[in-house]
Amino acid sequence: MQKNNNFLTILNNLPEIIILVVKNDTIIDSFGQIKEKFNNSKLYEHFSKVTYNKLLLLKSKNIDNLTIYWNSKDYEVSYFDDTYYFKDVTKYRNLYLELKKSLRDLRSKKEELHAVFDLAGNGISILNEEGTFLYANKFFQTMMEYSMEELYNESCISLSSPEYAQPSKSAVQRAIEEGIVERFRKICVTKSGKKINASMSLSYIKSTNEIVMITSDITSDVKYQEDLKRRINKEVQRRTKQYEIMCHQSRLASMGEMIESIAHQWRQPLNSLGVIVQGLKHLNNSENFDFDLLNEMETEMIEKINYMSETIDDFSNFFKISKEKKNFNILNSVKDTIKLIDVQLKNENIKINVNIEEGVNLELYSLENEFRQALLNIIQNALDILILRKQLNSFINIDIIQNGNFTELNISDNGGGICMKNIEQIFRPYVTTKKQGNGIGLYMSKVIIEHNMKGNLTVQNNQMGAVFTISLKSKDEN
């Protein structure tokens, strides 16, 4: 008897369980956590008509399982041997509803994400660890000319041109190992066989073991860059040719000036030689032939001829074309340059002064001949201005100073300076203020100093005239 009571106690305290024993539609016994006993009451008295009919169907085995809403709770009902078993599944039902709602929300978000992907201006695709397509947006499908069903049988490797198959496979493996691969460029082949230049970025998602790939068609960009490169090369060739022409014109102009300088330098020794020749004629006609005088005349003639020969050598060395850098002393180069036009300076009563700052580094490693040509252009320009303006007490000063790691030459004159409206354009090609000028000399000096020798050439006016400044990196004394 005690055992039966214990069993009933257990049945009545079963959590979330109600048991109804029914015979001939009458509840003869009930167990579980219920507010009142249903004994000796009819089954249909406790359920709605719809629910009651479902219970009968369950009893007759016309349905296999049944879930009902009863007494504000959800129950899962089963029937066996005249007994109904009601399992309270309310909390599970709520969880199910929440899961169902979450699933519905996830589906909605997935649809939204797909819509965003399809509106994207780049190809977006998802790959497995082998590089096979799991998903691709509309842009990618259109770009590659494949439907999604066709892409399921393809991979980012199979859509690559043959030479990029292995690099594509390596990019997939690198994305898995490193997490991300950015701007990997390759050539893809569309379904119709068209080749397109593509830039791809891959990101590995470890939780799903998938790879997100973003693909951009850069064919037009590559074509534009190649076209731009061709145009730049063409322009470089055109400018190089123009530069060579201007160099040639500058050299011809310099040669013309140098020929004039040679004429100046030869005029006096030629006159002297003429006088000596005439003296020889008189000496020959005299009764007493003076051999000592003849020897003196011979010595003087040889000196004049040697001077003229040295002049030719000086100008010949000046016009030697050399692009080889070498060590040279800037003061010696300045003196050699002045020597070329020294006679002209003296004939025009123009004094030239070279001043050297104490401690200045006079050693350079650069293009000596080109430096002398640039310096000569500047001095010649000052000379022409001083002659044109008939300046009294004319002078040209060359001050060599040290400015940090740079050796500077300040070439100044008292010719009145450059008109301010012209000073900004003074280094441009074919810009000149002289009637017989060609506008190449100062431009070429600018190119030589800044482009060829990596220095700097500027101009400004002071109270007396123009000041051209050449700045070149000094040779490291160590």
TrEMBL record:
Residues 261-476 form the Histidine kinase domain. CDD domains: PAS. Residues 109-179 form the PAS domain. Its EC number is 2.7.13.3. It catalyses: ATP + protein L-histidine = ADP + protein N-phospho-L-histidine. It comes from the Bacteria. Keywords: ATP-binding, Coiled coil, Kinase, Nucleotide-binding, Transferase, Two-component regulatory system. The keyword Cytoplasm does not apply. It holds the Pfam family PAS_9. SUPFAM superfamilies: ATPase domain of HSP90 chaperone/DNA topoisomerase II/histidine kinase (SSF55874), Homodimeric domain of signal transducing histidine kinase (SSF47384), PYP-like sensor domain (PAS domain) (SSF55785). The keyword Translocase does not apply. Residues 89-116 form a coiled coil. GO terms for molecular function: ATP binding; phosphorelay sensor kinase activity. It is an enzyme of class 2 (transferase). PANTHER family: C4-DICARBOXYLATE TRANSPORT SENSOR PROTEIN DCTB, SENSOR HISTIDINE KINASE. This is histidine kinase.
